[in-house]
């Protein structure tokens, strides 16, 4: 099995197969494309011609390199063409029957030294290998879509796979300019194993009418820096494909988080599989189009029927990074801001933090020195909440402790004028519990900013069952004026972002506990395969393991799902004082705090 894998057959010339063929041909491999559909083969050739032409236009390859790549790609309709291949990559329909049929036929066609790879992202590689005449040469080679652009390739070995086959395919992946990650055989592997649980929860969140599809997608893009929202991503992947992956994951894990949300079954059985059918969670201009068009579920863009209350001045309670960041946001937008802390000294320090932040903006050319002085002049530090007597909107950003917040809201109730809107920035506590500490719960709402507040565009607007329409409208209007994107959600643990983000982080920790993959491989898989700006362990160390554990505990208490129970490894690290970057050690060690 010591072979350079110079000739590669790709069986199945759909989007993924065509992309893999392009990667191989451009990297100098002889590529045999095989598909029973002559139309699919024709489209694959056309796709390669078009993509290489674009590469020439952009100066990435020369005309000669383009001609050579096209000459290396030949298409056939018969599996017999794979007889000369050193490696066969199968990317046919995601079903055991279809794949087993291909592997059985290949056993009688390919050379004994050839390696057989399946491109599955959901089915058992071991089961496919066990049914083969030579299981030692069967493994998984899971590319990500679009294959020419995505760097990650998961190399999946079963207990039957020969090490030489893994080494040969891993070397090939590196020569293709990819980042190979070695993983064991379980549904979803690393990237999809974490990704599809998150996508499933997002689908269930939408199905429960907790938030609109637009707000769920915007929340995860703006709150986590993801390239796509989960529902748009499900449409891109294919809702039928997602359901298949989740079915396979649930069959093995019996984790309710992997049990496909009923809406996935309903949509896929109705033929509404996403972009490829022209309709899924969203409606598209045509099958295969990426252009979303208005449908019956598209929210109207007209102004809300209920007018908001006028807001001219804003009070921000707190002296930490979040409080000063929120105060800076309001001051930049032209509001007069009272920044109140437990002492005048703390309030002055918080204003000084704003001054430094604004100075950095001047240095980077984002604002003028004059604008900096005007903005800073709108912020008045105060050592008592009594200074909030005339504000129209009071926003608290104090410690994430319910007793502390309830005491503060009881004080705001006494201090603030009638009609003032009272908002909490809590990320995990019940907003209604803060509201009930006042005599005017209808005026209380959640306004969850993300850190750092000046940079992050998202605000989760959290209504309780008692919040008035006018207060909700007021906060929506204020968000527009401070140039933030508001998303509406109800008053339940985690709101949108944390309710979807932290189970994903928790599942990543469980992967490490089970010795399935390393921290580095998991982080690399999610950045390269999922387009995440940070891997889960990088993010956990930045957020703080104590903060992460607290949010996990809140989610587990509220939803009572065993799958949401915090991973023991997270609890042990927090108990040991390893809280992430702020202590110099979390999942990784850091040179300085």
From TrEMBL:
Domain 3-hydroxyacyl-CoA dehydrogenase NAD binding: 7-185, 314-491
Occurrences of domain 3-hydroxyacyl-CoA dehydrogenase C-terminal (ranges): 188-284, 494-590
Superkingdom classification of source: Bacteria
Keyword line: Oxidoreductase
Pathway per the UniProt entry: Lipid metabolism; butanoate metabolism
Enzyme's top EC category: oxidoreductase
One Gene Ontology molecular-function label: (3S)-3-hydroxyacyl-CoA dehydrogenase (NAD+) activity
EC id: 1.1.1.35
InterPro entries: 3-OHacyl-CoA_DH_NAD-bd, 3HC_DH_C, 6-PGluconate_DH-like_C_sf, 6PGD_dom2, NAD(P)-bd_dom_sf
Protein family per UniProt: Belongs to the 3-hydroxyacyl-CoA dehydrogenase family.
Name of the protein in its database record: 3-hydroxyacyl-CoA dehydrogenase family protein
């Amino acid at each position: 099995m010591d072979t350079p894998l110079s000739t590669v057959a790709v069986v199945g010339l759909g989007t993924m197969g065509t992309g893999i063929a392009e990667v191989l041909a451009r990297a100098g491999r002889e590529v045999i494309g095989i598909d029973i559909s002559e139309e699919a083969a024709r489209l694959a050739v056309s796709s390669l011609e078009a993509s290489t032409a674009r590469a020439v236009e952009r100066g990435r390859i020369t005309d000669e390199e383009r001609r050579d790549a096209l000459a290396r790609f030949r298409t056939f309709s018969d599996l017999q063409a794979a007889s000369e291949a050193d490696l066969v990559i199968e990317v046919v329909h995601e079903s055991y029957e279809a794949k087993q049929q291909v592997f059985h036929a290949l056993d009688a066609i390919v050379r004994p030294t050839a390696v057989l790879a399946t491109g599955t992202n959901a089915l058992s590689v071991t089961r496919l290998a066990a049914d083969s005449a030579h299981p030692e040469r069967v493994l998984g080679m899971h590319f990500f879509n679009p294959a020419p652009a995505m760097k990650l390739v998961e190399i999946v070995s079963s207990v039957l796979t020969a090490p030489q086959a893994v080494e040969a395919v891993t070397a090939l992946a590196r020569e293709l300019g990819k980042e190979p990650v070695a993983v064991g055989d379980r549904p979803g592997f690393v990237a999809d194993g974490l990704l599809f649980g998150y996508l499933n929860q997002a689908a269930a969140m939408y199905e429960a009418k907790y938030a609109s599809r637009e707000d769920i997608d915007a929340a995860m893009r703006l709150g986590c820096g993801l390239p796509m929202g989960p529902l748009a991503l499900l449409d891109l992947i294919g809702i039928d494909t997602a359901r298949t992956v989740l079915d396979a994951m649930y069959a093995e894990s019996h984790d309710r988080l992997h049990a496909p949300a009923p809406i996935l079954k309903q949509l896929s059985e109705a033929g509404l599989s996403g972009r490829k059918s022209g309709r899924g969670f969203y409606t598209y201009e045509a099958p295969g189009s990426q252009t979303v068009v208005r449908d019956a579920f598209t929210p109207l863009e007209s102004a809300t029927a209920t007018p908001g209350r006028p807001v001219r001045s804003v009070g921000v309670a707190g002296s930490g990074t979040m409080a000063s960041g929120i105060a800076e946001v309001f001051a930049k937008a032209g509001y007069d801001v009272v920044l109140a802390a437990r002492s005048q000294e703390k309030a002055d320090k918080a204003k000084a933090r704003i001054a430094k932040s604004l100075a950095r903006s001047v240095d980077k050319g984002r604002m003028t020195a004059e604008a900096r002085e005007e903005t800073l002049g709108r912020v008045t530090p105060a050592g008592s909440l009594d200074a909030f007597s005339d504000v129209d909107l009071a926003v608290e950003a104090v410690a994430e402790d319910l007793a502390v917040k309830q005491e503060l809201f009881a004080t705001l109730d006494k201090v603030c004028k009638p009609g003032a809107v009272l908002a909490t920035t809590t990320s995990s506590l019940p907003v209604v519990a803060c509201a009930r500490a006042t005599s005017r719960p209808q005026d209380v709402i959640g306004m969850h900013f993300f850190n750092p507040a000046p940079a992050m565009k998202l605000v989760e607007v959290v209504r309780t069952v008692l919040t008035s329409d006018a207060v909700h409208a007021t906060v929506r209007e204020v968000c527009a004026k401070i140039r933030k994107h508001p998303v509406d959600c109800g008053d339940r643990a985690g709101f949108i972002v944390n309710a979807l983000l932290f189970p994903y982080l928790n599942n990543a920790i469980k992967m490490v506990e089970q010795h399935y993959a390393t921290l580095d491989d998991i982080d690399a898989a999610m950045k390269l395969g999922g387009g995440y700006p940070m891997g889960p362990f990088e993010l956990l160390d930045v957020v703080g393991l104590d903060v992460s554990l607290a949010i996990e505990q809140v989610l587990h208490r509220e939803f009572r799902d065993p799958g949401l129970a915090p991973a023991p490894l997270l609890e042990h690290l927090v108990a040991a004082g390893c809280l992430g970057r702020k202590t110099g050690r979390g999942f990784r060690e850091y040179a300085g705090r």
